[in-house]
Amino acid sequence: MPAAPGGPRLLLRRLREAMAEPVSPQARLDRIVTLIAANVIAEVCSVYVLSNDNILELFATEGLNREAVHLTRMRADEGLVGLIAQTAEPLSLSDAQSHPSFSYRPETGEEAYHAFLGVPLLRAGNTLGVLVVQNKTYRVYSEEEIEALQTTAMVLSEMIASGELQALAPGTGPAARRPVSQRGVALADGIGLGHVVLHEPRIVVKQLIAENVDREVERLELAIGEVRSAIDDLVERGDSIGTGESREVLETVRMFAHDKGWLRRMREAVQSGLTAEAAVERVQSDNRARMMRQSDPYLRDRLHDLDDLANRLLRTLIGHEGNGDRVLPENAILVARSMGPAALLDYDRTALRGVVLEEGGPTSHIAIVARALGIPAVGEIANATALCDAGDAIIVDGATGEIQVRPGPEIEAAYGEMVRVRAKRQEQYRALRDRPAVTQDGVAIGLQLNAGLLIDLTHLAETGADGIGLFRTELQFMVAQRMPSAAEQQTLYEAVFAATGDLPVTIRTLDIGGDKILPYMPALEEENPALGWRAIRIGLDRPALLRVQLRALLRAAAGRPLKIMFPMVATVDEFTRAKAIVEREKAHLRRHGHPLPSDCRLGVMVEVPSLLFQIDEIARAADFLSVGSNDLMQFLFAVDRENRRVAGRFDTLSVPALRAFRLIAERAAAAGCPATVCGEIGGKPLEAMALIGLGFRHLSMSPAAIGPVKAMVLGLDASAVAAFIETEMARAGDGESLRPALSAFAKAHGVPI
């Protein structure tokens, strides 16, 4: 049976008129289903809305028993309507009652109808409900009719998402506004309560229905041409899209931009009466719905590429680029697919209460910066940017890795109480600030801070830390728009020394490369950047870069002690060459009459496993060692710490890891070379307890970790835990983790962890 004269374009015009009528939401919805039924010549048209308690409820119908409205309710996995909601795919049947998923509802009177066509009501890939048409005959709905109904469904979805229908069913809300609880990975401790700010705000399509279809087709074609050309240029130039995406990603995006099926679906959506923007939005929502339900991780990952392409096309159509300004409202929670440390630092930190990411693991640099700033952060939240809208209430639990979007009053109250309890605990930690970190059996443990920004140094006084065990100089380079000059670097280092006073500071030379790309340096394509041209390797290959930094450090430290640490050293020879560059710079400054540091000590970050087999030699050559546990564990276990599929496959408290740490502590002590742990494990009380048991006496960590670790130290008997670890390592299997045994030890001995 053909569609009514005028087709979907006429229907959309009439829907627009119905949406503008000054009537109640129920009257408007009743009018809409009548219009749809007349347009597709269907005897039934019904709208089911998915409520926040995961129930599909009949909200309006033309053709079925009207008394069933708000009475007929079914689970989201029940019946044909539930099947459509689950799969997010259209379903067309010539005989609905013969389908195994058919669920008979006597109150509706639908037993007389055989032909069935249902389409999901989608927004950003999320199912909000189902739109159904039915006929008494055993008919087959055409592709054009399915397309028309999907186009109509998009308009209905916006009505549902606006919250206009909530008043029709008191006590529940539409699924678009339902509370969402999701667990990811904890990145930075703390609890943040606030409202969503999207790092890359979604383009809001305000005009859905086309005034002039031919003009919209022309606009779409022009925009597609512009986006294709821009991506082709990026590929040819070898630039990155956004923050560090590789050429491979660019090639994938270009492939999608030339995909005929994607383009055809958008053109068909425009032909059905949507604006070019609405067509892009509708097709991408369909893509999201399908790909979010895929079990193949590769296919789910490609969703990001399609999102990027759709956003580029929308920005081209609307005529603006960029993410807007970085001014935040009070109590802002940033939600992003991914974000680099420089982007985070662009925001006003006084208003920022938390960060939620779809990507990013606990050892990523965004996580390290979030911890340094004391901002609760959670990563690996699937589909985070589509779970919420700007302004939604949200809670970030950086301790458990959970987020609560649009939480109910009970959840808000519970987290409010947790915040009060944490504040009380912080008061208890602050009371320990001036107490020396000495174990029960009299072993002094040095607790220092990891830092990278001047703002970090204010935490020295707050925490009572013994100094800065790691100052990451690359953050200054990452937030700058151009390479900092020698004078600018010297100014920063002078400010660091002024802020720390007489406390010791260990400054790490520039650690760039890998995933830390400077925005003003050409991106270098490498198969495995973590094992590539980075850190000291760049410094030795481009000695002018290293010499400028060393000269700035030496001049800034005039008359005071200076500790310089070189990252990513793999051989004793690399350290020897770096040391020679320092000596040349000192000689240069002497010749020109510049005062030198009162003492200059040079150290090595132990993070490349090859140093474990040169540990005696490097401990004799260096003035001090500092264990970079993040990279050391990554390389030791051949596990990419950013790869969620494998990052959890090893434990830093397993026997192989503990043997590596013990080897470093023992050989450094034998050589009289001080050894510190500055990786993330030093800031975790249980792991810090194990490191003390292995012989480490200096730990460096984020500011928030000082209090909990000091409380652990004050309750610990160092000789007892050392003996316990020795016994357990001898007993345990080679790959076994001592985490359960160490936790039991702490509990039995009253050590707070």
UniProtKB/TrEMBL annotation:
The reaction(s) this protein catalyses: L-histidyl-[protein] + phosphoenolpyruvate = N(pros)-phospho-L-histidyl-[protein] + pyruvate
This enzyme's EC code(s): 2.7.3.9
Residue span(s) of domain GAF: 24-170
Stored Gene3D superfamilies: 3.30.450.40, Phosphoenolpyruvate-binding domains, Phosphohistidine domain, PtsI, HPr-binding domain
GO molecular function list: phosphoenolpyruvate-protein phosphotransferase activity
InterPro entries named in the record: GAF, GAF-like_dom_sf, PEP-util_enz_mobile_dom, PEP-utilizing_PTS_enzyme, PEP_util_C, PEP_util_CS, Phosphohistidine_dom_sf, PTS_EI-like
Coiled coil: 210-237
Organism of provenance: Methylobacterium adhaesivum
Top-rank EC class of the record's enzyme: transferase
Organism superkingdom: Bacteria
The protein's name: phosphoenolpyruvate--protein phosphotransferase
Entry keyword annotation includes Transcription regulation: no
Family in the record: Belongs to the PEP-utilizing enzyme family.
Cofactor(s) annotated in UniProt: Mg(2+)
Location of this chain's protein in the cell: Cytoplasm
Keywords for the protein's UniProt record, in alphabetical order: Coiled coil, Cytoplasm, Kinase, Magnesium, Metal-binding, Phosphotransferase system, Sugar transport, Transferase, Transport
